[in-house]
């Protein structure tokens, strides 16, 4: 046994230590945000364990209900929603919770109430559970004023007002990617320690990528700018090499690859879904926040994604996000269309 190597492990940058270090940069902080994040991390660890043994524990399959989106809820969806709501409420730091699985927002009782609002998709990509494809949890955090009783309007803010956002991907490894507004950092769960370790410090997306990610099965229903952009990816007119198509169908996995390797992720509006398909509050906003923090862009087809002001909890939007120059190209095509 290499005892010297084991001794070194105590100096690893865990997510807890990372967050506390950041907290020390804000002398006025009372630690509320750090406590909230620790409860989110706990929920992610629990779900990582549940996903890994889902087949053995008979958690795979349908729970027999449909969620607010009209999608059949899988057993893990129901479990993950319960886990996150309990973890967030028990932190004592939240006042409003918005989940993809619940039609209405959850208002935390006054005795356990804090100053944060959390929007989350507890298990994104759950249609892929049964075949073992990477799935994940997406979350965003808002700070709200404490001078009034919380209302739905406190949640319906533009994404640029987010305090923090992140996702946890459950795949070949469990990876948590987080931004608190000063860059993006990635942490990987070390099962032997039960700790998330900093493995991807200060993630910066390449200015231009070689990959595009889109469901081409919807191509016949796309608008002209999206059709032209994908055509340019396949048959570039400037003599450059074609882009490679990579599409998993799990937003967390597709965005994670885009963040690390560069390129663009597209989920446009089409004739079937004229308002787009991805939900603004807990899918579009957190991922757009992370992309911008990493040096990329996020665009809805007519504006910067984080400037969008949602009017309802489960509102949908088109989204194009990824490398700065790649998103510039799709923006130019939409501008020319107008």
UniProtKB/TrEMBL annotation:
Q: Which cofactor does it need?
A: Mg(2+)
The residue ranges of the Fructose-1-6-bisphosphatase class 1 C-terminal domain are 205-334
* InterPro entries linked: FBPase_C_dom, FBPase_class-1, FBPase_N, FBPtase, Fructose_bisphosphatase_AS
Q: Which SUPFAM superfamilies match?
A: Carbohydrate phosphatase
What sequence ranges are listed for the domain Fructose-1-6-bisphosphatase class I N-terminal?
A: 13-201
Q: Which reaction does it catalyse?
A: beta-D-fructose 1,6-bisphosphate + H2O = beta-D-fructose 6-phosphate + phosphate
Subcellular location per the Swiss-Prot or TrEMBL entry: Cytoplasm
Superkingdom of this entry's organism?
A: Eukaryota
**Gene Ontology CC, one term:** cytoplasm
Q: What is its EC number?
A: 3.1.3.11
| Record keywords | Carbohydrate metabolism, Cytoplasm, Hydrolase, Magnesium, Metal-binding
What are the GO BP annotations of this UniProt entry? Answer: fructose 1,6-bisphosphate metabolic process; photosynthesis; sucrose metabolic process
What is a single molecular function from GO for this protein?
Answer: fructose 1,6-bisphosphate 1-phosphatase activity
Q: What is its main location?
A: cytoplasm
| Family per similarity comment | Belongs to the FBPase class 1 family.
Task: Please identify the protein, giving its name as recorded.
Answer: Fructose-1,6-bisphosphatase, cytosolic
- In its UniProt entry, the species of origin is given as Glycine max
């Amino acid at each position: 046994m290499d005892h010297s190597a084991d001794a070194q492990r105590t100096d690893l940058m865990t997510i807890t230590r990372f967050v506390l270090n950041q907290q020390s940069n804000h002398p006025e902080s009372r630690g509320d945000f750090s406590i909230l994040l620790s409860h989110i991390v706990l929920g992610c660890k629990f779900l990582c364990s549940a996903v890994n043994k889902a087949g053995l524990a008979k958690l795979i399959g349908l729970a027999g209900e449909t969620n607010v989106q009209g999608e059949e809820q899988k057993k893990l969806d129901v479990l993950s929603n319960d886990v996150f709501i309990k973890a967030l409420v028990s932190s004592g730091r939240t006042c409003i919770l918005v989940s993809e699985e619940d039609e209405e927002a959850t208002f935390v009782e006054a005795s356990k109430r804090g100053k944060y609002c959390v929007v989350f998709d507890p298990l994104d990509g759950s249609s892929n559970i049964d075949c073992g494809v990477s799935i994940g949890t997406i979350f965003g955090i808002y700070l709200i004023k404490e001078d009034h009783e919380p209302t739905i309007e406190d949640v319906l803010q533009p994404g640029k007002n987010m305090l923090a956002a992140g996702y946890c991907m459950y795949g070949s490894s469990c990876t948590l990617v987080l931004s608190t507004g000063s860059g993006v950092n990635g942490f990987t769960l070390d099962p032997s320690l039960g700790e998330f370790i900093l493995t991807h410090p200060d993630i910066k997306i390449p200015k231009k990528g070689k990959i595009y990610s889109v469901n081409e099965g919807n191509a016949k229903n796309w608008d002209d700018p999206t059709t032209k952009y994908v055509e340019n990816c396949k048959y570039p007119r400037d003599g450059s090499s074609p882009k490679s198509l990579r599409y998993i169908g799990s937003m967390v996995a597709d965005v994670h690859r885009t963040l690390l390797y560069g390129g663009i992720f597209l989920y446009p509006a089409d004739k079937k879904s004229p308002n787009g398909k991805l939900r603004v509050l807990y899918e579009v906003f957190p991922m757009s926040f992370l992309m911008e923090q990493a040096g990329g862009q996020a665009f809805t087809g007519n504006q910067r994604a984080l400037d969008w002001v949602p009017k309802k909890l489960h509102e949908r939007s088109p989204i194009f996000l990824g490398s700065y120059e790649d998103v510039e190209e799709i923006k130019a095509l939409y501008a020319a269309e107008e």
